[in-house]
Amino acid sequence: MKFKFSAIAILLEVIFIILFGLFVDYGIEINSLYPYFKDVHVMIFIGFGFLMTFLKKYGFSSVGINMLIAAFGLQWGTLMQGFLHATQGGKFSVSIKSMINADFSTATALISFGAILGKTNPVQMLILTFLEITVFAINEHLVTEIFQATDTGASMTIHAFGAYFGLAVTLILYRPGLKNKHKNEESTYHSDIFAMIGTLFLWLFWPSFNSAIAAEDDKTKTIINTYYALAACAVVTFAFSSLLDQRGKFSMVLIQNATLAGGVAVGTCADLKIYPFVAMCIGSLAGIISVLGFHFLTPVLASKLRIQDTCGVHNLHGLPGILGGIAGIVVTAIQPETKNGVQLTASKQAAALSSTIGIALLGGALTGAILKLPIWGQVSNQNCFDDSAY
């Protein structure tokens, strides 16, 4: 671990520095975007990092490896998106908008990290981040440039993609020894409090996440739709959490995760003229789907399909991401709109959703096969969900 991780990390960083020197220049500054960048940056490093601290003996690794993935991924994300949009001569410029998009790239890897949390080592996470951001950038280019679909809040391209990529990886890395619940795969009172810090940061800043790269005329609309979708989702999540418990109590797992599903689901059509009451319906439905997923679907995935989803990313990002994609299809079918001179259609939205899920599953399966190679070193079943090794 000592030499393998250090050698790979330093080698990749040197490569990044060389590539930045050869291809990257300053772009046109859009200073009005800096507040959005700060909010998104907080979500990436604090929101995602603390959301995953619920495991009683994996808090250091949850926050620490989250920071490693984010710092590594935002550099590769900048390069990948730059290469796909490079001007003549191969050079490309970076700006505040580029930095926001780089953080978005990183979010996909952090979502996938949640699916395999506690079962991989830092070397494997570097490899996963490198490969996933590469596939993500290609898929995003396909969705936005080839299909010309709308996905401003990235319900499909970030959330659904990251979730199903991670699920495919965890399927390939399936551990029969973890079929029965591991003694460390549980939370404590204090670890759940730390996880709620992540939830609250994500919940508060999600309107910025969805509106960061929206057109200037659509930003207010996007913020309003996300704001009310989140509020409705939170109330419905509490209601269904109590409803499904035999004693009528609230579940911290649901409060930490399902309350955020509304922000995920409304992302695709948040910049469209759907009106707040529709956004609230989408948010409420997302909360219900997420709660039911945690309660009924997660045990089935683990026992029947060999998908061990540590953080339940399928319920927070996968299912609400698909709901967001479907909402985009329905809204564009009922009320056609034109964005940047492009006519939005239900068929374009459907193609974007289908390709995203397919590419995520295929890319995740191939990445899982690479991570399974003995060269990277596997964490023993006994040491899973315990960060003392690192």
TrEMBL record:
The keyword Transport applies. Keywords: Ammonia transport, Glycoprotein, Membrane, Transmembrane, Transmembrane helix, Transport. It is found in: Membrane. It is a multi-pass membrane protein. The chain crosses the membrane at residues 6-28, 40-59, 65-86, 98-117, 154-173, 193-215, 227-244, 277-297, 317-338, 350-371. One of its GO terms (molecular function) is ammonium channel activity. It catalyses: CO2(out) = CO2(in); methylamine(out) = methylamine(in); NH4(+)(in) = NH4(+)(out). GO terms for biological process: ammonium homeostasis. InterPro entries: Ammonium/urea_transptr (IPR029020), NH4_transpt_AmtB-like_dom (IPR024041), RhesusRHD (IPR002229). Residues 11-388 form the Ammonium transporter AmtB-like domain. One of its GO terms (cellular component) is plasma membrane. Signal peptide: none annotated. Homodimer. Heterotrimer; a RHCE monomer interacts with a RHAG homodimer. Component of the ankyrin-1 complex in the erythrocyte, composed of ANK1, RHCE, RHAG, SLC4A1, EPB42, GYPA, GYPB and AQP1. Interacts with GYPB (via the N-terminal); this interaction bridges the (RHAG)2(RHCE) heterotrimer with the SLC4A1 Band 3 I dimer complexed with GYPA. Belongs to the ammonium transporter (TC 2.A.49) family. Rh subfamily. This is Ammonium transporter Rh type A.
